[in-house]
From TrEMBL:
It comes from Myxococcus llanfairpwllgwyngyllgogerychwyrndrobwllllantysiliogogogochensis. GO terms for biological process: L-arginine biosynthetic process. One of its GO terms (molecular function) is L-glutamate N-acetyltransferase activity. Residues 3-145 form the N-acetyltransferase domain. Keywords: Acyltransferase, Transferase. It comes from the Bacteria. This is GNAT family N-acetyltransferase. Pfam families: Acetyltransf_1. GO terms for cellular component: cytoplasm. InterPro entries: Acyl_CoA_acyltransferase (IPR016181), GNAT_dom (IPR000182), NH2A_AcTrfase (IPR010167). The keyword Transferase applies.
Length: 148
C-alpha cells in the first residue's frame, strides 16, 4: 500500500475539509490557501494533509491532520518536514503555528513556544487568528535558516 505525497488540487478540498472536521480542526480559510497544501494519498484516498498560509516573509503552518488509521506511521511528520523545506526554499524567515493539542509534537521540527503578542501583525489576517482557533491555543515559531 504505497503512500503518495503531492500538492493539493482543487478537487481535494472536500476530502481535506472532511479530514479536518473528523479531527475537530478548523476548516475556515482552507479553500483560500489550498495551493499551499500537501496531501498524502493511499489507494486513491486522502489520508493526511497540511498547509501553509503565506504572509510576507512568514507563514502559518496549519491543518496538520492525519486519518485515525494512519497515525503513528510518520505521515504527518513527512508532511510537516516537506512544508518546512518548502518554506526554506521559498526564502521565508519564520514559520508559526497554533495548536490546542500538539504542542509537544512540533519541537522536533524546530518549533518553540512563544507569546501570542510576538506574532507578526500580518498573520492576524489569518482566519486561524481571527477566531477559527481558540485564544487558548499555544503559539509556536520556527525561525528559518538564512540562505546565503
Amino acid at each position: 500500500m504505497m503512500l503518495t505525497l503531492r500538492p493539493a488540487r482543487p478537487a481535494d478540498l472536500g476530502a481535506v475539509e472532511a479530514l479536518l472536521a473528523a479531527a475537530d480542526l478548523p476548516r475556515q480559510g482552507v479553500a483560500d490557501h489550498l495551493p499551499y497544501f500537501l496531501v498524502a494519498e493511499r489507494e486513491g484516498a486522502l489520508v493526511a494533509a497540511a498547509g501553509l498560509e503565506l504572509y510576507g516573509t512568514s507563514a502559518l503552518l496549519r491543518s496538520v491532520v492525519v486519518n485515525e488509521n494512519q497515525k503513528g506511521k510518520g505521515v504527518g511528520a513527512e508532511l510537516v518536514q516537506r512544508l518546512v523545506e518548502r518554506a526554506g526554499a521559498d526564502g521565508l524567515e519564520a514559520l508559526f503555528l497554533l495548536t490546542t493539542t500538539a504542542a509537544d509534537y512540533f519541537p522536533r521540527f524546530g518549533f518553540v513556544r512563544i507569546d501570542r503578542a510576538a506574532l507578526p501583525p500580518e498573520l492576524h489576517a489569518s482566519e486561524e487568528l481571527r477566531g477559527a482557533c481558540p485564544a487558548s491555543a499555544v503559539v509556536m515559531r520556527r525561525l528559518m535558516a538564512r540562505q546565503p
